[in-house]
Design brief:
heterodimer; A: 603 residues; Rossmann fold; FAD/NAD(P)-binding domain; 5-stranded parallel sheet; 26% strand; B: 127 residues; alpha/beta; 4 helices; 4 strands; 42% helix; 18% strand; binds flavin-adenine dinucleotide
């Protein structure tokens, strides 16, 4: 891959870091997430006695503006010149807190983040004393590290101002349009031959009543007419390489040609799959009058005026069963091919099922409709009106007990459903019906290859997982990669579009300035200590990153190691072979680690 | 006496997020474990490990990024170096099982826990 330009950006630095160290330690409660397990008062108290610590506080939410104000104030008024915060994972708030140091005029790298949530309180729930002791040691190690920290300037790398969107359903299309609106280019990589995903179907959609297909077509017209969006149809991704700002996506086209797409950020909008009932699940596959909801929507659309006719038979009654393949219970429902049950609620099915029942009643008012559910989750704005309308339409509801499943039996041409009904004090009910419709849920799409190429995190449900549901809802742990829509979990169209807009704005903001700040963690040479032994360049895998040069140091000409910061990747292979410790990765020096281990090893 | 301490060296790129994933899933393991993170463990010289044992660390698990390593050649260099460390450990009569080089990815929760429970068994008899 070609190298992109890299340069340094000076931070405003207050020179007081040169003075005697005055460390401030802050221990965050994380609103109980930490303090329910770790005795945060004790941690702060122990640290207040530790050498070079001038201030040690605990606070409910260090990331809140009040929490950050403490840091700024302590730096500006109390002469603090180094900061340690014990809180959640640095992935969430390291940047937040560096920002606070910067605002206070302190170099943002004179900061150490200690993770006492994901790696302490959440994993040692049953050992409060041990967790507290561990937290104390880790924070002490953090103090040792920050005491040996030099101020650093961040490096910026030029970024490709294009966002690659994988998947061209409503989510992918919305994301691409939003990226384009923000002035960047977008590329949609779609594996099929059309845009629209699951909305390329008949029937209408709640809550607007529009035809599903027109929602897809309206968006796709906009996408195809945008000069900022390029769509690759029939394209299979064969590899993804690179890093934030400079990804490369290898794509195989249907015609066998290969293409390399460069992008600064990636949005994954690969959508969902419909749950497929196994043969015999509520009679599915054994009787052609047992259909899934998507199949039924097609059947309803195809049937002409007059009577509802399916497969040559007049249908006079239809029974809907909710929660097929969702909210499954261990020991009651049969695990899928992956050996797992789907414990989650698919959220969309209740409203879409009831909307479909209403559509059936509108088209064929004489058809009797039965609805067997556990809970009706018509949760969204105006969704409840569909439920009310169904009641008005004389849809007859049966509520099954949570842990019981209705049975579907066939008696010649007749279909019988047996269920207990909570609404009539658990009475056994028997429903004779011409057709059964299974309200199937959403399951994760099979994107094993993408997960593998990009090392994407998945939740226990198998959908892609965000860093944090509230703080970073569309980002995955991998820098520069975002998720949009149902690839993340069950969502309806509105929610998918909202998530897609968020992902697009995040990606656009990342690339807007044309360069991305990277951590300044590259190798640095202490020329006084360097003996010119020439061992380190041999360890370096990056050509030109580490060389030997002749240089005047302290008035004497000598041979010293020289690092090209634009080419150094900061792995530290050089540091391991340097006996006098003249070369180190900035921010990660061996002296720092020795001191940390010492603090941890001590009682 | 407190429990023998296990030092876990993780990478920014893969095993540190892996350790976070274990926490996010609310799984649990012993509190005698201390995670530090580095760009890549290839930066540690042989004597770093020996010093850690001498300071009182009972076991060290290096959770590298393995084949996912973003740094060219780093994993090969690291495994060679660990071989050297094993040789020094043998000379110094330190049980070589107290140092383990393994690979943990961002989502390898089960493997993460297994490495810890394996090391717990090794360090039980180290004081
Ligand atoms: C039966 C049913 C009825 C519904 N009714 C409603 C309703 O009335 N109202 C409502 O708001 N919502 C409804 N929904 C939900 C709605 O369908 C979804 O919210 C919406 O389709 C999500 O869009 P998406 O773009 O996230 O996913 P998808 O529509 O699944 O699109 C994903 C796209 O990504 C592509 N893709 C997948 N993998 C790859 C890959 N590896 N490389 C390249 N491309 C890839 C696919 O080909 C597809 O084009 C319903 C859902 C179901 C199942």
């Amino acid at each position: 891959m070609e190298e992109n330009k890299i340069y340094e950006k000076e931070h405003t630095i207050n020179e007081n870091y040169r003075q005697k160290p005055k460390v401030a330690v802050y221990v965050c409660h994380c609103g109980g997430n930490i303090s329910d397990v770790v005795d945060v008062k004790k941690v702060a108290e122990e640290l207040s006695k530790y050498h070079d610590v001038a201030i040690s506080r605990e606070y409910a939410f260090m990331c809140s503006s009040t929490g950050q104000d403490y840091i700024v104030e302590d730096i500006q008024k109390n002469g603090i010149n180094r900061v340690v915060i014990a809180a959640c994972s640095p992935a969430l708030h390291e940047l937040t807190f560096r920002g606070a140091l910067q605002r206070a005029g302190l170099n943002p790298y004179l900061y150490e983040h200690v993770n006492i949530r994901e790696q302490v309180s959440w994993v040692h729930k049953n050992d409060k004393e041990g967790a507290t002791k561990k937290a104390i040691s880790l924070v002490k190690a953090g103090v040792e590290k920050v005491l040996r920290q030099d101020p650093l300037n961040s490096i910026r790398v030029e970024a490709v101002k294009t966002v690659a969107v994988i998947g061209g359903g409503v989510s992918g299309m919305r994301a691409a349009l939003s990226v384009a609106k923000n002035g960047l280019n977008a590329v949609i990589i779609e594996k099929s031959d059309k845009l629209g995903g699951k909305l390329n179907r008949s029937g209408n959609v709640y809550p607007t009543g529009e035809k599903a297909i027109s929602v897809a077509e309206n968006l796709s017209k906009e996408v195809l007419s945008s000069d900022k969006i390029k769509v690759y149809f029939n394209s299979e991704i064969t590899f993804v390489s690179g890093y934030v700002g400079n990804f490369q996506i290898n794509v195989k086209r249907k015609n066998g040609e290969y293409e390399k797409i460069k992008a600064g950020a990636i949005i994954i909008a690969t959508g969902f799959d419909n749950y497929k009932p196994y043969e015999g699940e509520y009679g599915y596959g054994l009787n052609k009058f047992v259909l899934t909801l998507p199949e039924f929507i097609e059947a309803l659309e195809k049937s002409g005026p007059g009577k509802f006719n399916y497969n040559g038979k007049d249908i006079n009654s239809v029974s809907f069963i909710h929660c097929v393949g969702s909210r499954q219970i261990d020991g009651i429902d049969k695990p899928g091919k992956n050996g797992k049950i789907n414990e989650y609620c698919s959220r969309v099915c209740c409203t879409s099922l009831i909307n479909t029942a209403n559509n059936l009643k509108t088209k064929y008012p004489d058809v009797e409709v039965f609805d067997i559910y556990t809970d009706i989750r018509t949760y969204g704005m105006d969704h409840e009106s569909y439920y009310k309308e169904a009641s008005k339409n004389d849809v007859i509801f049966f509520r099954r007990p949570l842990e019981e499943r209705p049975s579907v039996e066939f008696d010649g041409a007749k279909i019988k459903i047996k269920t207990k009904d909570v609404l009539t004090m658990n009475e056994d009910m028997e429903i004779e019906t011409d057709m059964v419709v299974l309200g199937v849920g959403m399951v994760p799409n099979d994107i094993t290859d993408l997960v593998e190429y990009m090392k994407l995190p998945k939740s226990s449900d198998g959908f892609l997982q965000e860093v944090h549901p509230k703080l970073r809802p569309v980002e995955v742990a991998n820098n520069g990669i975002f998720i949009a829509g149902t690839a993340q979990g069950p969502m309806d169209i509105l929610e998918s579009l909202q998530a897609s807009n968020t992902a697009a704005v995040k990606a656009a903001a990342l690339l807007a300035s044309g360069d991305i700040p990277l951590d300044p963690f590259v190798a640095v040479v202490d020329e006084d200590k360097c003996t010119g032994c020439e061992k380190c360049p041999k360890e370096c895998s990056y050509s030109g990153a580490l060389t030997m040069i002749e240089k005047e140091v302290n008035g004497k000409k000598k041979k010293v190691a020289y690092v090209n910061a634009a080419l150094c990747k900061g792995c530290g292979a050089c540091a391991a072979v340097c006996e006098p410790r003249a070369i180190n990765v900035a921010g990660w020096s061996l002296d720092q680690f020795d001191a940390m281990v010492e603090a941890i090893a001590k009682e | 006496m407190s429990k023998p301490k296990i030092l876990i060296i993780t990478t920014n790129h893969s095993s540190y997020p892996g350790a976070n994933a274990v926490g996010q899933a609310r799984l649990s393991y012993g509190s005698n474990t201390y995670i530090i993170r580095v760009p890549d463990p290839v930066m540690f010289p042989e004597d770093f490990y020996i010093r850690a044992f001498e300071k009182g660390i009972a076991g060290i698990i290096i959770m590298s990024s393995g084949s996912d390593c973003p740094y060219e050649g780093a994993y090969e260099r690291l495994s060679k170096r660990i071989q050297n460390v094993y040789n020094i450990m043998k000379q110094k009569n330190i049980n070589i099982n107290r140092l383990k080089l393994t690979t943990i990815c961002t989502v390898c929760k089960e493997a993460f826990l297994k490495e810890i429970s394996d090391m717990e068994k090794v360090v039980q008899n180290v004081n």
